[in-house]
């Protein structure tokens, strides 16, 4: 087969473009292509004959998050955090949105295409549905008073290419920043959108349809926080009949806030 690009039929070119979009290469972010798989150029520095073993990952990865004393410092630490490979393929960091004083923290899975462009969680179609669900129970990310406000973040802070499922290693790298965010934001309640945050923050591995709607307690740095897993808005867009379950969960959230 001749693979020269200028010999491609319009149909083959359209297919190739479609494939690229499916793989997540759906943005033009530079004038010339960059081969991110190419080996880095050798550095002109002498290396010791026997390099010391790399430090254990868990030790080095927890430290930048633990040192942060404010949410702004977490955002800054993430901007400078190069260990997560997702950062290389994402357009920008997508850390958090909403009111840092809010009683409610929502934790999603990972940024998608729109979030990757705007750098804010839940700004695409599923975010618009989420905003409507919250509004139905008197909550908003734009609210100034902490009783009606929400703070929104994700389990992963950079878009995985093509929205693929993040690897265990990528998730583990982001987890200290999520936990430190919870410590500093001090929510009264946490709502997990989808299975990924629910599994990370509760240690359970049941499917989301089993977990949803049941309050559990998340213990973060010794503080017990009521946590409600619910369905992810992207799932509700695909399965609109399940919105009635999500509505029940929103009412349960409302009741919990009103009772405390
Ligand atoms: N889905 C998520 O889980 N998070 C976002 O920020 C957007 C979509």
Question: What's a quick, concise take on this entry?
Answer:
The chain has 260 residues and is an alpha/beta fold.
Any descriptors?
12% strand, 260 residues, alpha/beta, globular, binds uracil, 11 helices
Roughly what is the average pLDDT, rounded to an integer? 86
- The beta-strand count equals 6
Radius of gyration: 21 Å
What is the count of structural domains?
1
Shape: globular
Molecules bound to protein? uracil
CATH superfamily: Uracil-DNA glycosylase-like domain
CATH architectural group: 3-Layer(aba) Sandwich
Order of helices and strands: HHHHEEHHEHEHHEEHH
- Share of helical residues: 40-55%
Strand order of the largest sheet: 1-3-2-4-6-5
- Overall SS class: alpha/beta
Number of helices: 11
Binned strand content: 5-15%
Main sheet attributes: strand count, strand direction, barrel closure: 6 strands, mixed
Q: What is the CATH third-level topology name? A: Uracil-DNA Glycosylase, subunit E
Q: pLDDT under 50 segments (min length 5)?
A: 42-61
CATH class: Alpha Beta
N-to-C terminal Cα separation, in Å?
Answer: 68 Å
Explain how this protein is built.
The chain is an alpha/beta fold and 260 residues long. It has one domain (53-259): Uracil-DNA Glycosylase, subunit E (3-Layer(aba) Sandwich). Helices cover 41% and strands 12% of the residues. It has helices at residues 10-22, 57-66, 71-79, 86-89, 113-118, 125-135, 168-185, 195-202, 208-211, 233-238, 243-259, and strands at 96-98, 104-108, 150-154, 189-193, 216-220, 223-230. It has a six-stranded mixed sheet with strand order 1-3-2-4-6-5. Strand 5 (216-220) and strand 6 form a beta hairpin. Residues 42-61 have low confidence and may be disordered. It binds uracil. Residues 108-112, 115, 121-122, 126, 154, 193, 234 line the site of uracil. Uracil binds next to loops.
């Amino acid at each position: 087969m001749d693979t020269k690009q200028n010999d491609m039929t319009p149909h083959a070119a359209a297919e190739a473009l479609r494939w690229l979009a499916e793989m997540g290469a759906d943005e033009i972010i530079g004038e010339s292509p960059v081969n991110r798989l190419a080996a880095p150029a050798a550095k002109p520095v002498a290396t010791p004959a026997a390099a010391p073993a790399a430090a254990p990952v868990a030790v080095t990865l927890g430290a930048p998050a633990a040192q942060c004393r404010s949410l702004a410092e977490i955002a800054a630490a993430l901007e400078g955090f190069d260990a997560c490979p997702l950062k290389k393929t994402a357009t920008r960091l997508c850390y958090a949105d909403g009111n840092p004083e809010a009683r409610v923290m929502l934790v999603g899975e990972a940024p998608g295409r729109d979030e990757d462009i705007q750098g804010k969680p839940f700004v695409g179609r599923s975010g618009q549905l989420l905003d409507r669900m919250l509004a139905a129970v008197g909550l908003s990310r734009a609210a100034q008073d902490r009783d009606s406000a929400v703070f929104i973040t994700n389990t992963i802070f950079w878009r995985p290419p093509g929205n693929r499922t993040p690897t265990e290693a990528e998730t583990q790298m982001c987890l200290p920043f999520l936990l430190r965010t919870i410590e500093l934001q001090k929510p009264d309640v946490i709502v997990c959108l989808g299975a990924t945050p629910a599994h990370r923050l509760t240690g359970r591995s049941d499917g989301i349809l089993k977990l949803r709607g049941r309050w559990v307690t998340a213990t973060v740095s010794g503080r017990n926080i009521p946590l409600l897993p619910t369905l992810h808005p992207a799932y509700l867009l695909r399965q609109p009949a399940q919105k009635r379950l999500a509505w029940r969960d929103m009412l349960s959230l409302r009741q919990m806030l009103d009772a405390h």
